[in-house]
Each structure stands twice: as C-alpha cells, then as structure tokens.
Amino acid sequence: MNECIFCKMVEKKIPVEIVDEDEDILAFKDIKPQAPIHVLVIPKIHIPSITSITKEHSRIMMKIIKSIQNIAKKTDIIDSGFRIVVNNGENAGQAVDHLHFHILGGRSLKWPPG
Ligand code: 5GP
Ligand code: ZN
C-alpha cells in the first residue's frame, strides 16, 4: 500500500486547493505557506527526489517548468520575481519523499536561505 501523502493527493484521497493540473502534473497551495504565494508542483507519478530523475522523465520535467511559468503568470508574480526550491534529503529538510517544486513569491525573499 502506498503511504505517500502526495500520491494520495493525486488520487484525490486527500483534498488540496488545486492551482494547475493535467494528466502528468498537479500543482496545489502549500498547507503551511512561507510566502503570500506558496504553491507546490509535483509529477503525478511517484518520483522520490531530484536525484531519481532520469532522461525518461524529460517530458514530465518540461511540463513542470511550463506549469511553473503558467502559475507565475496566473498568481501575478512573474514580474515581481519568485523562487523555486527543491529540498533534497535530510540536510535540506525534505519532509515528503515525492519530488516537489516549491514556488515562493509575493514578498522579498532573503538570500542566502537559512
Ligand atoms: P519539503 O519540506 O518536503 O520540501 O516540503 C513539503 C511541503 O509539503 C511543506 O511545505 C508542507 O507544508 C507541505 N505539505 C505537507 N503536508 C501537506 C498537506 O497535507 N497539504 C498541503 N497542501 N501541503 C502539505
Ligand atoms: Zn508519491
């Protein structure tokens, strides 16, 4: 049995506020937003992390990039700027082992991150 919470969101077993969706990707609002705009974009198939991506995922990865562009336009952060974050592994604090791209925007973001 798959215990991955993001897979459950894909299967619509856990409700989320959807921002973008097609047959390969899902984008939804983060439950604990760290900025006025905080959206997660995920592949619908279970890819554990950025280190698991292979050439076979090229089409899906391009779709994720297109979705990020569309969401940045839709949420009106395309001109003000935004950040894409992918936490990988323990030191980065990756809490969910299903690849996800954070889109953060709507405020000035500090650099370097903590
Ligand atoms: P990570 O720390 O793995 O990079 O990010 C996981 C993200 O998933 C966190 O920002 C967290 O707030 C978000 N998250 C965890 N559980 C849920 C949930 O049930 N619903 C939504 N919408 N976001 C979640
Ligand atoms: Zn999953």
Automatic annotation (TrEMBL):
<feature type="short sequence motif" description="Histidine triad motif">
    <location>
        <begin position="98"/>
        <end position="102"/>
    </location>
</feature>
<dbReference type="InterPro" id="IPR019808">
    <property type="entry name" value="Histidine_triad_CS"/>
</dbReference>
<dbReference type="InterPro" id="IPR036265">
    <property type="entry name" value="HIT-like_sf"/>
</dbReference>
<feature type="active site" description="Tele-AMP-histidine intermediate">
    <location>
        <position position="100"/>
    </location>
</feature>
<dbReference type="GO" id="GO:0003824">
    <property type="term" value="F:catalytic activity"/>
</dbReference>
<dbReference type="InterPro" id="IPR011146">
    <property type="entry name" value="HIT-like"/>
</dbReference>
<dbReference type="InterPro" id="IPR001310">
    <property type="entry name" value="Histidine_triad_HIT"/>
</dbReference>
<protein>
    <submittedName>
        <fullName>Histidine triad nucleotide-binding protein</fullName>
    </submittedName>
</protein>
<dbReference type="Pfam" id="PF01230">
    <property type="entry name" value="HIT"/>
</dbReference>
<feature type="domain" description="HIT">
    <location>
        <begin position="5"/>
        <end position="114"/>
    </location>
</feature>
